Batch of 2 targets.
Target 1
Amino acid sequence: MRQPSNLKRVIVDYAKLNDDILNLLVEKYPFGYDPADIISFKNAKGEMVDCVEVKTDDTLYLVKVSKRLVAAMEDFDADDYNDDDDEDDDNDPDFDLGDEPEEKE
């Protein structure tokens, strides 16, 4: 059973993190967070909120994450790789168009 905590609890949106909290996140989750790290709860409006937790000496921060954030983080490298030159995608060995549609005769 969990012990009651005297820590102040603060919910913060990921987009509004300050450098101190961001550094705590990077230290705690150097390789990213796993689904097991996510804490889900309903807020006062009855909306489901997903957060990851980081602590300081006096504060417990619940940092909001979202599926869009996760997708943006995963797609970051792919999106920025050839942002300025989409015409060269055919020459990029890492670029996969998938199966080409068959030509009609």
Target 2
Amino acid sequence: MIQDSGQLPPSQGTNGCTACGRLVVTPVHSTYLPTGKLVNQWRCPVCRNAWQTSADPASSTDLQSNRSEHLRENAGHCLALEGTAPDDMARNQFRRMGDAWLALADTPDWLDGETPPVSRPPPQSAQA
């Protein structure tokens, strides 16, 4: 909650000075650790107080669902573009791209056991 004076209460969020509550928008330095943890170092321009905050990485499950969700959004964009395509060739290209994005989105779900594998027809033997 930002107060009219441009200050934040010291207990609110990570972008307010922990001493005076003044709004601090950008960290002085950020470090991404090999563990995935993000460490931000802050300094208040008014009172010169320094502090640091950290954020733990999202779980791999969260990252995976975000990735699948992002791929599905891409498919939705293609399907929306399909409706505005000027000709059949462009519509077919957008439809195929949308189908490809959906297939990519379903692959991580299948690998994680969230959806059953797609049954494929057995290969047909070559007849002369």
